[in-house]
Amino acid sequence: MNEPLSFYVHIPYCVKRCGYCDFNTYTPSELREGGDLKSVSNGYIDLLIKEIGMAHAVAQTNSPIPTIFFGGGTPTLMEPTDLGLVLMELSNTYGFANDIEITIEANPDTVTKDKLAKLRDVGMNRISFGMQSAAPNVLKVLDRTHDPENVIKATTWAREVGFDEVSVDLIYGAPTESISDWEATVDAALELPITHISAYALIVESGTKLANQVRRGEVVMPDEDQTADKYLIADSKFNSAGFSWYELSNWAKPGSQAKHNIAYWENANWWGLGPGAHSHIDGVRFWNVKHPSTYAERINNGVAPVQDSETLTLEDKENERIMLEIRLRDGIALTSLTPDQIAKVESYLETGHLDLDFWGVGRMALTQSGRLIADRIVQEIISA
Fold first, then answer.
1. Which helix (H) or strand (E) holds 186?
2. Cα 212 from chain centroid?
3. Three-state DSSP class for residue 81
4. Strands (DSSP E) along 107-172, which ranges?
5. What sign does the dihedral 278-281-285-288 (CA atoms) show?
6. pTM of the predicted model as reported, rounded to 2 decimal places
7. Which residues, at least 6 apart from 297, have a Cβ–Cβ distance to it below 8 Å?
8. Closest among 234, 25, 262 to 126, alpha carbons compared
9. What pLDDT was estimated at residue 282?
10. How many angstroms from the chain centroid is the CA of residue 92?
11. In angstroms, what CA-CA distances link 157 with 108, 120, 144, 184, 298?
């Protein structure tokens, strides 16, 4: 394999499960009765290091690692020195690109200035804080426990200890969230010393606490028109503050785009370490067993933790390419589409959903209103 290989490192632990979350995460009490984080995570770093060895036996490349992302769960619950051991192993095994991006997700309640400094010392150079909202009523319905004031402290500390790239994640469209709540959240985010913002519409995933509340009528989801309005409000405010959109849900100051996430959208190769982590190598997708105990058993027995895999067909690859590329600012090269596909979407030029200037230079790119119906346009293309 000559292509570079990025790495995602999954930390599956959280102090508390948020009501909307369906990620593969576990609280200490879910893993062991009366257990605390230290006891349930004991030995986890050794498992990740062993999986790195397994990865290298399968996916060898002459290219150094371009990006690493620590996600979860709550990676900042772990000791920075332990996370540093994972980075050291990856560096020794594959080597790091000179401009490597190493990102860690963080809950603002789980960091101190000292911990952030230690994370920077072990090699992290980008950090993304889960802000979600500045409105207490919205945080409550999302089951988020952090204090909004801690977001201000955490982002400020991050910049002070040397993180040049600081991002926050926002969620809009939650029950009880008014337009004014969302505007206040966006304004609060733009007051922070950040270089990047992600904003995602809330999706109610089946089986979550929030989904059960919606089903029972305890909370009511806002209508789609209001959620679309919130996207437009955010985009306008972000642009006015110097954050340009480069992917449907992401905005950045110049030069501050998230390279790791761009690798996903460009269908690059990556390896996911940890329980439930997904990987993609040259058109083959595979994913690990989900439960940490099963993952540990496999690794300790010298057995690959992969649960299953799929090899993408040419049609699968093409559909994915269209679905992913349309999310990006530069869109899709018209030369990569068939005449039938182009004919199918030309009407969206007249309605203002596709950018005329981009079309004129041979690319199909979404306008602001087009971003609201991206899925519909994708379906038009792949059904042509």
1. helix 179-190
2. 25
3. helix
4. 126-132, 165-172
5. negative
6. 0.94
7. none
8. 262
9. 92
10. 26
11. 11, 11, 21, 23, 39
Q: CA–CA separation, 231 vs 383, rounded Å?
A: 27
Element (H, E) at 91: helix 80-94
Exposure string for 131-159, b = 16+ CB within 10 A, e = fewer: bbbbbeebbebbbbebebebbbebbebbb
The mean pLDDT of the chain is: 93
Residue 370: cis peptide before it, omega within 30 degrees of 0: no
Q: Give span(s): CATH 3.20.20.70, the chain.
A: 5-265
Q: What is the pLDDT of residues 140-171, one digit of tens each?
A: 888 876 778 899 999 999 999 999 999 999 99
Question: What are 192-225's pLDDT values in tens digits?
Answer: 999 999 999 998 777 777 778 878 888 788 888 9
The residue among 109, 47, 98, 77 whose CA lies nearest residue 289 is: 47
Fold (CATH) for 5-265: TIM Barrel (3.20.20)
What is the sign, positive or negative, of the torsion defined by CA atoms of 151, 157, 160, 164? negative
Amino acid making up residue 105:
E
Per-residue pLDDT reduced to its tens digit, 171-186: 999 999 999 999 999 9
